[in-house]
Amino acid sequence: MKVFGLTFFIFCLATTTVLSQSLLGAWENTSVAEDGKLVKSVAIFSEGYQTATWFDAKTGAFIKTNGGLWELNGASLTETVEFDSDKPERVGSQITFEIVLEKNTLKAVDDDLVWTRVDDGLPGKLNGAWLISGRMRNGEIQQRDTNRPRKTMKILSGTRFQWIAYNTETKEFMGTGGGTYTSENGKYIENIGFFSRDNSRVGASLSFDFKLEDGNWHHSGKSSKGNPIYEIWSPRKP
Known about the structure:
Elements: H1 2-19, E1 25-32, E2 38-46, E3 49-56, E4 62-73, E5 76-84, E6 94-101, E7 105-108, E8 114-119, E9 128-137, E10 140-143, E11 150-156, E12 160-167, E13 172-184, E14 187-195, E15 205-213, E16 216-222, E17 228-235
Antiparallel strand pairs: 1-2, 1-8, 2-3, 3-4, 4-5, 5-6, 6-7, 7-8, 9-10, 9-11, 9-17, 11-12, 12-13, 13-14, 14-15, 15-16, 16-17
């Protein structure tokens, strides 16, 4: 009876702590892998969607990423997996676990890994989840259906960003990249911290013009390969 009472008290304490805080924003952790390398992990939570990514803390070499929808009920966090570069068979499954969320730390119950808050969704103007919905080709905007299984999502906190290309139907992961960003005076600047397709791009900075028009994000400049781009991103609603 005493053991049950203590367990119930800890669960209630964790639930109260979670309800008084918010998961929204970016979180990170640095740990030591079995081979002795430092591994950085970054998680971004926006309204309804989240990602978690692991990469070499020194070189930025990509290791793995996963993410999808999330829902918090009390201290129970449920994630519906939309992509997983390491274990694609998990796509479509739901995972539920208890968490302890404090002001600046986040951890799963029975897990020693502690995530530290990076930001709470500020100060960036573009925080949230976005799906690419249009591109400029030959001077004309070509619209893209955001409901199809093949998706390119970009998710941003107040200071961190990540894009992911994947297919929820085939469970295929196509690529990802991310890092830090700023969005001031109509300029959106990405500082690449990891890039699954080309590690040599780590450390590069890319500058774009941006504007919000009718709720959509218009994004223009040059890609990581130096090609001119004009993209339209639409907010993704859970």
